[in-house]
Fold this sequence. Notes:
Blueprint: H1 14-27, H2 34-46, H3 52-58, H4 69-81, E1 85-88, E2 96-99, H5 101-104, E3 108-112, E4 118-121, H6 125-139, E5 151-154
Parallel strand pairs: 3-5
Antiparallel strand pairs: 1-2, 3-4
Helix pairs in contact: 3-4
Amino acid sequence: MPPQEPTHDHGLAGEDLHVTVGRRLRVVGMRYSRSRRVVVDVLATAGRPLTLPEILEAGRPADDRPLAQSSAYRNVGELVDAAVVRRVDSGDDHARFELHESLTGHHHHLVCDGCGRIEDFEVPDEFEARVADLVAAVADRGFRVDAHRFDMVGRCADCA
Length: 160
């Protein structure tokens, strides 16, 4: 399936995204290379977490000079270490990657048990308010919550 438009309406876009990514990489002593920029561009337009083969395919430029597989694997790992990309597990053998939530905005995932595909989705504000209540309740028990995830697991339309 072709990449979809991003569903996040409160994340960074365009040059703001690239400026922020460039800063994060400089802080950890990395250069914002052409290969890293291609990975960021692919993930920014995907609208869902992608496997490394999907990143490689989507990153193939018009002149057919593809990203080297070894370079893509290395760059994705380094982008994860720099908090630019995050790994999303679907329960199968294929890791999927998306831009870090601090760049895209908060969202959750629909995970298909059949094919492993993961789609982004946003929950209603009322749901997030209830999660905030839960965070306050566990804070009373001395637990500090840094983030939360909510994945709905089932079957996509293609696997149903």
